[in-house]
Specification:
CATH topology: fumarase
Order of helices and strands: EEHEHEHEHEEH
Helix content: 10-25%
Number of helices: 5
Largest sheet: 5 strands, mixed, barrel
CATH superfamily: Fe-S hydro-lyase, tartrate dehydratase beta-type, catalytic domain
Strand content: 25-35%
Distance between the termini: 27 Å
CATH class: Alpha Beta
CATH architecture: Alpha-Beta Barrel
Structural class: alpha/beta
Number of strands: 7
Number of domains: 1
Radius of gyration: 16 Å
Shape: globular
Amino acid sequence: MPTFIQVPFQKKDILGLTAGDRVLLSGTVYTARDAAHKRMYEQLQEGKPLPFDVDGQVIYYVGPTPAKPDQVIGSAGPTTSGRMDKYTPKLLELGLGGMIGKGYRSEEVKQAIVKNKAIYFGAIGGSAALIARSIKAVNMIAYEDLGTEAIRILTIEDFPAIVINDTRGNDLYRQGIEKYRQI
């Protein structure tokens, strides 16, 4: 049975989650991919504010395709999270609560997740059209010149995800490898 999580969330809302837990996320998340992360990082280095307050927020690593008529959004599947690893520890220090993507995270990011009591959710790659059904509204908020990589705010309802890295350092991918080795 999945756990229902309202986003943005308070740290207390995720402390009990464990790697492997299935969740359904509802509320608002921000989109940001490689180019947006690079630009946000540069803004921080220049002492400029970010386009949104990351405290307690969740970033979904996605570059959605344009919506077809009568749709809110086009395909909206996760992108490989490791491409954001260079920028992630700083965002976690600023209070970023969680991330949604696919694939492994670096050791530095996993340590920052634990240190900052954040969480990394995995979304199922290859199911972009199905995931898009959980997205109820989309609004552009920054970096429109980046096209699909612009920052958007999404209103989501029952968005399916799996906890990959939890606040205590558990890693679903590592657990899976260990389980396989024991066979």
